[in-house]
Structure of Adenosylmethionine-8-amino-7-oxononanoate aminotransferase:
Amino acid sequence: MAPQTTAGWHPHLWHPYTQPATADPPLRVVAGHGAELELEDGRRLIDAISSWWVTLHGHGHPLVAEAIADQARRLEQVIFANFSHGPAERLAERLVGHWPWLERVFFSDDGSTAVEVCLKVALQSWVNRGEPRQRVVAFEGAYHGDTFGAMAVGARGLFSAPFEPLLFEVARAPWPATWLGDQAVEAREAAALTELERLLAQEPTAAVILEPLVQGAGGMAMVRPAFLQRLEGLVRQAGALLICDEVLVGFGRVGAVSASVRAGLRPDLVALSKGLTAGFLPMGVSLASGALYGDFLGNQPNRTLFHGHSFTANPLGCAAANASLDLLEHPEAAHRDFEARHRPRLRALAKLPGLQHPRLCGTIAALDLQVDRPGYLNQAGQQVRRACLEQGVFLRPLGHVLYLLPPLCLDNAQLDRCYEALAAAVTALAAT
């Protein structure tokens, strides 16, 4: 049977999170330059969401590109079960430098698989200790990936519904999201902590998993560090493990290389990806404590972590990640003051009618459209996306949630264009 397609769609491609019957056809990109994408028709768009949150320093950054090319001439790939190599060793040492209480680094392919590794390590560690615990606590609104374990700990709904019978049971606590000027946050935090304490008391818990500071795909829902610190106290009292999913929020996105450090947390496991390689190559990392690593040591084969990926610790990805860290560790790295650049612009935008709940954390700025039916399927965000596209700015709202998460190389003139495009789009939407 011939491939089925519609006008503007390639007959052989299957795009993610996209319904071709109703979505706009994809735009053809021929190049990327810093914070901009160059289209086939010659237009340039500001990539205001860093190409799904991965393009950290901008498209085609020469330092990262040169590091990959140099590594490709030396060693492009080797099985990591039997060999080690310099780029992986250097990267592991540097990652531990930013998460110094975590001593072991396990490489995988992307954010979802990094979360899978964390879950498997957490659950098997209890088995290896002779005290099997199976309960996992997650948070309402969470998103941790699209593989089965990651889906299980993410919020259940439209994305996971076809697989619901196959997902393991997870207990869920409230996520007391807050925003600028929020006067009721302390009451919501107290209620959330009370519910978490109740869940932890019900039965022995293996692990609690969360996205520190910002739930990304769940609507850029932000919480305060003080809440997370009290949460960790409850987890420790229950003897459970704490997993931090920093796939989105790591590597400068929240104004620090480590979101755990900025939040004042010391998790037992951390999942990393997205900005890890500056968006050049797919790679995931799971960081684990030395104590957890010790749970897997022994002469018995069943103590082994039987998990791996063909491209584990791929030398090209490691080279890209090391080059990216060179940029992030520079004293004048752009992530350090991005929040201050956002703040006055966000406050001005939030004064427009039809917007609410402005919030800000590092490079991430977000607000909500006031709509009758908030959620991922709300089409108001798509109207804003199309209007911004006409102004040369690419956004991908999360339903009614508008956000900016640009590359670190974005200059102030480009940042102004992003906010001006959003203001014009919101104003036009309110007039309809």
